[in-house]
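Margin note: ligand = 6-O-phosphono-beta-D-glucopyranose.
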Amino acid sequence: MCGIVGYNGKEKAVDILLDGLSKLEYRGYDSAGVAIRDNKKEIEIYKSKGKLLNLKDKIKDKKLNGTCGIGHTRWATHGEPNETNAHPHTSNDGNVTLVHNGIIENYQELTQKLKRHDYKLYSETDTEVLTNLIDYYYKKYKMGPIDAINRTMVRVRGSYAIAVMFREYPNEIWVARKDSPMIIGLDKNGTYLASDVPAILKYTKNVYYIDNMELACLKKDSVSFYDLNGDEINKELKEIKWDVSSAEKEGYEHFMIKEINEEDEVVKKTLNSLIKDNQIDLSQTGLTIEEIKKFKQIYIVACGSAYHVGICAQYILEDLTRIPVRVEIASEFRYRKPILDKNGLVIIISQSGETADSLAALREAKDQGIKTLSIVNVVGSSIARESDHVLYTLAGPEIAVATTKAFSTQLIACYSLAIEFAKVKNKINKKEYKELIDELQLIPDKIKTILDNVTEEIQRFSSKFSHIKDAFYIGRGLDYAISLEGSLKLKEVSYIHTEAYAAGELKHGTISLIEDNTLVIGIATQEEIFEKTISNLVEVKSRGAYVLVVTPEGKDVKKVANATFYIPETNKYFYPSLTVIPLQLIGYYMAVSKGLDVDKPRNLAKSVTVE
Ligand code: BG6
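Resulting structure:
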C-alpha cells in the first residue's frame, strides 16, 4: 500500500506534492517520486530510493515551477525498493506517466500481451505494465484518455488507485480506482487527489468520493467524473469534519505519543456521539430494535489491533447479551467459506476502512446475505460505504502506523453496542443499564489520570528494559484479550519479540522459555479470576522472571511484582480502556529509547489495501 497525491491549479505543484507525500509516508516509505509539468507536453520526473527526505534532497535545487503534478511514496510489492521500480512510471515513449497504489494480479499475462506489441519493460513492477497498457489502448483506438483508461480497467484484475498524465493533455490529471482508496479535493487554488485525507486537509475540506470502477478528470478549477461506459456522472462535494492540526505533530516528537495523549479527548468525543440523555443512542447506525432482537449470533471480523478489539468485545458482548460471539481474522475468514447463521450480524472493525482483507470479509458476509455493521474511523471509506450499517469512531486522523487512539475509540463503540443490545434483549435491568453508562462516562477522566500519573514511570521503566530480546504478556479473560494488544504494540514499534498468553495456558508448554530476568507483564484487573492470575505470576516469578503488573489501585500484588503500574478502578468490562494506555506507552518508550522511527516502523504500513 502506497500513497499517491496530485495537484492541478495555480500554485507550484512540487510543494503541495511533497507536503502531501509527507502526510502519507505512513502508507509506505521505501522510495518516492514526483512528475511535474506546466501547460506543456514535457513532464519532469524525479525518483529516489528510501525515505521522502532523499527525494526532497534530490530536487531541492531544481527549478520546478510546474503547476500540475502527481507524486508517490511506495511500499514495495512487485520489485525491490530502488529508483527504477519507484513511481512515477512512464510508457515506452513517455506518452503516459502514472502513479499507482494497489496490485495488478494479472500483470504477467498482460506483460506477454505488451511484449507481443513490442513494448519493453525496464522495471519489475506491475505498475509499469499498467502504464503501457493504457498507452496501448490509447494508441490502438485513438479515443482519448477516458476510453483508454476504461478499456484498461476492464482488462486488468486487482486493486488500484491511479493518477495519470497524458502528454497530449498538458492541463489535466486523470484518475481511476478499484478497491484502493482515493479522495479528490477542490478549492479556489485548484484540484487535489490523495490516498487519504491528511494529505490535502491543509488545502481543502471539500472533497469528492470517487467510487469503484469510476474515473475522473482533474482540471485547474473543476473535476468531472465518468463511469465505465464513458458517460459523465454527477458527484456531490462533501465537507470533511477533521481540522488541519489533527494531521500535524503539534510539538510532540512523534505522532504516536501525540495520539496517545489525545485518547481521553477522542474517547469523550466518541462517547458523546453515542450517549444522549444518559441513554445509548445507536441511531447513526440505522439498526432497529427489531433487527437487534433477531440477532442470534455475532461474528466480529478484523485485522491487527482491530482484531484485538474484537477479542475484548467477545467477552463483553457474550457476558452482557448472552448472544454467542465468534471473532475471526479477516484474511482467514474470507477464504474459509464460513458457515454463517442467517440471523447473525457480522461486525467489521477497521480504523482505515480500507484494509483489503476486512473489505473482502465484508463482501463475503454480504454475499451470504448476512447483515453487516462496520465500526470505522474514516468517513467515506470503502468498508463504510459498502456496509449495511456503520458506527463511526471519532478518533480523527491517525497518522502513526501503530494504532492507539483509534483502538480506544473502537473499544467504546463495542461497549456501547453490548450495553444497548443487552437492554434490547432484556438481559440487564434499568439500574444495571444506568450504572454501566454512568461508569462509561468516567472513562475519559480515568485515561487522563493514567496519562498524567504513570507516563514518567513508564519512561524510566522502558529505558531500563529496552535492551531485552523477549517479553511475555499474560492475563485471564479480558486481561488476556488486552495483553494480545500490549504484545503487538511492543513488537510493532520496538522490534522486540513478544508473546501474549492466557495466563492459565503458560504452564502447558511456554513456561519452559522463562528464565532469569525474563520480562513478564501481567495484567490483573478481573476480580473473579484475580487470585488465579496472581498464582500464574507466582509460577513465572519462581522461575526467575522479572514481573511487571498492571492492576487497579488498592490491589496488593507486592508478593509477586518487581514493578507495578496502578490504574484507576472501573467496571470489569471497561478495564481494557485503562490497561491499554500503559501498554501503549511501554511500546512507545521502548522504541524511543532504542532510537527507532516510532511512527513508521520497518516493514509496516498504516492500512494494508492489498492482499
Ligand atoms: C495494520 C496497522 O496495517 O492494519 C495496524 O499497522 C492495524 O495498526 C491493522 O490494526 C488493521 O487496520 P485497520 O485500518 O483495518 O484497523
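The radius of gyration is 25 Å.
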